[in-house]
Design a protein that fits this description.
2 copies of one chain form a homodimer. Chain A is of the alpha/beta class and 421 residues long. The first copy, chain A, has 13 helices and 17 strands. In chain A, the strands form 4 sheets. A 7-stranded mixed β-sheet of chain A has the order 3-2-1-4-15-16-17. In chain A, helix 2 packs parallel to helix 3, helix 4 (166-183) packs parallel to helix 5 and helix 11 (322-339) packs across helix 13. Chain A is globular and about 60 Å long. The two termini of chain A are 18 Å apart. At the A-B interface, helix 2, helix 11 and helix 13 of A face helix 2, helix 11 and helix 13 of B. Chains A, B: Its cofactor is Zn(2+).
Chain lengths: 421, 421
């Protein structure tokens, strides 16, 4: 049991940012016991870690990131989604068949993740089971709370990156799920069909069945790019929208929590279906910009009370920073407002911070806030390197972290009560 | 006379990036003598600084930045231009009347600029002459080559930040110009009417006359925001477009080089006028996003052979990095292509790098390239902190610098042949 002392900031809702200057947040058995002006009587004798004038925020939640793509972040930004997959992504992911390469690459990814403000993540690996274990080992060791998905894909992808035999793919995925649940404490498996175009109906059926049996969460991609959406319509002529194609295959929140990355072009019907089924949106503004996909209507999703968080989507996105994802979300919402729809007002700091903490955190349970009962993920920020001549409020200091911070500003990091950095 | 050895990268044109791996670039009296595979016979005995596997690029050119706004970078991003000026900018700029505050703030700005990849900049100060000298002193001492403008403004601005007496304002500006030319070697004055809405016709007339007498360059803002443009139409009913309003007041390239920031909404007539008059565009993608202004058609300007460079526009923009300006330019060009006009294809790495070096550099003369005869501005980049498991080409390494670099990657910096960092 311990308390952290500093300027404490967290979201209660998308519109309400709570700031407790010189406050205390208490952790007992990895769970927050709330935020206080002074230490309550029953906690008088607990250890207090005094972070002084620093900011203390909940850990940030990355709802969508591809670990094997970290290697080519900031490269190959000259194509749209489908060409980008064939030209850059699939050839790189194929390399993870070799464990030596996978180990080198995943160690680099996990090391940068450690020094980022992220405390929880939904991670795509590749279809290689051995390399996926390796990634899970590294994350487990680091203390990261993560859902990691061995990717499934069996069509419309190069021979060298295709699961030829569906029953064998399902068997292997099941075995990986079973072993992972036994083996890891921090890391959990997540069912991960790449996306409709690269998954046959038979494969989807098997994965849906697996979700039904295990109750595990699932992750995939939805309505990212116009050409992709058109392709899905051709592949699934029976479906009324892309989300419906997942739904008919039993992978749209039917048997467990489900998060869909992007949702740039979700129709009214798709939005309704996501809402009914409790499907989470992983809004990935940087990736949607880099791959020329467009701008997702995040404001609309928030106003419609969809479950929504943010994702870096490496390497469609180039930055691992979830602060950058918040800033990007605000920035593209302004361009959406200006260029597309003046009824959708730009996102606020409050909304972006909510999505990056409590909004995405909900996918992991009670995560992403310091309210009593929430798992204790915390990031301590030291902003002294960002010089300024004037006085700044605590809220302004948070705003600067969103726009200007990098790994140097991450002073300490706690995940479920454990100090990681 | 000396040579730098490393992987040398520079633009010849907007479409042509030249890469000389393990090459030499030679500096004589501050001027590049060209790039070579091996040292030519006549240079056999000169000093060679060997930067090994590092990248060597021309210094980057920031065509538009407000020094006094550095203090609130990353803050107050919730308004459009005109409200943002009144709410955040003018109150902050007013503080520079106090030299103690100005010194503290400008030292911070100049220190960050030193460690950035920028070697040349067009800088707005405030209307305060004493503080402007102070900024110029600091830049001069650092070795930065910069145009610095004491801002002129006499209407539609708060009392506390208005030049009440036009003749006195012109007299003071003239005196400042004369003193500056005598006093500084690296830093030059630039004529700086804030923008049409805050400058009376009389003030503009005086400044135009001053440009005529001195041949100095001028800088201002153009067609940034729809409300601003509408306001200019109301203020200048005789003008056919915003650019024409400057032109009729003799400040649109008539008497000297002129750079206009933004040009988000320039009409066909305005574009033609810029081309005829040789007016430079300072494309500021980050600021145009943060202030919800829109996306400037940079690709079109390049194709029409307008003179164009990039600007950070602190604190409409929040990052001082010109690499970030390149990445932002590419990113918003993709959104412009997707959302507005599929005929304007996204900017390439070549085009963004050109704008950030040789394109903007032209405003300073033969600047922004390593071709023979160019002033020797160079930045040496160490990218070893950005881990990767695979082999990377030199071009890919440059691409990563554009998307991922920060001040830690700036290994050395030369301005006009002098080593600054």
């Amino acid at each position: 049991m311990f308390a952290l002392h500093g300027h404490i900031i967290y979201s209660e809702s998308k519109d309400k940012l709570c700031i407790k200057e010189n406050g205390y947040v208490i952790c007992e058995d990895g769970i927050s016991q709330g935020v206080y002006d002074t230490l309550p009587e029953q906690y008088k004798n607990i250890t207090v870690k005094d972070y002084g004038d620093r900011l203390i925020i909940p850990g940030l939640v990355d709802l969508h990131v591809h670990a094997p793509q970290y290697s080519f972040r900031g490269l190959g930004m000259d194509m749209e989604l489908l060409d980008w997959l064939n030209q850059y992504t699939f050839p790189e992911e194929a390399k993870y068949k070799e464990l030596t390469y996978a180990e080198k690459a995943y160690k680099q990814f996990v090391e940068e993740l450690r020094h980022s403000p992220t405390t929880r993540a939904c991670i795509f690996a590749t279809l290689h089971t051995e390399a996926t274990y390796l990634l899970m080992d590294l994350l487990e060791e680091m203390g990261m709370k993560a859902y990691v998905g061995k990717v499934n894909m069996d069509r419309n992808c190069p021979d060298y990156l295709r699961e030829d035999d569906v029953s064998e793919a399902i068997r292997e995925t099941k075995e990986w799920v079973g072993n992972s649940i036994k083996k890891y404490k921090n890391v959990l498996p997540i069912i991960t069909p790449r996306f409709i175009p690269s998954c046959s109906d038979l494969l989807m059926k098997g994965l849906s069945q697996l979700q039904k049996e295990t109750g595990l969460p699932a992750q995939s991609h939805l309505s990212e790019n116009p050409s992709e959406i058109k392709w899905v319509q051709e592949l699934c002529p029976d479906s009324t929208c892309y989300g419906d194609a997942y739904d008919r295959r039993g992978l749209f929140g039917l048997y467990g929590k489900t998060v869909m990355a992007h949702c740039v072009y979700s129709t009214e019907e798709e939005i309704e279906k996501m809402k009914e089924n409790g499907v989470y949106v992983a809004h990935c503004p940087q990736s949607n910009t880099n791959l020329s996909s467009g701008i997702a209507p995040a404001k609309k999703y928030l106003e419609r009370d969809l479950k929504i968080g943010l994702g870096t989507d490496l390497a469609g996105g180039h930055s691992i920073s979830m602060f950058r994802a918040m800033a990007d979300a605000i920035q593209v919402s302004k361009l959406r407002w200006r260029l597309l729809n003046t009824k959708e007002t730009p996102l606020t700091i409050e909304e972006a911070f909510f999505m990056g903490t409590k909004g995405g955190g909900e996918f992991f349970g009670k995560v992403g806030s310091f309210e009593k009962g929430y798992e204790f993920d915390a990031v301590v920020l030291d902003d002294t390197s960002l010089l300024h001549p004037q006085e700044l409020t605590v809220r302004s200091r948070l705003e600067r972290m969103i726009y200007l911070s990098d790994d140097r500003n991450i002073y300490a990091k706690y995940i479920a009560g454990c100090c990681i950095v």
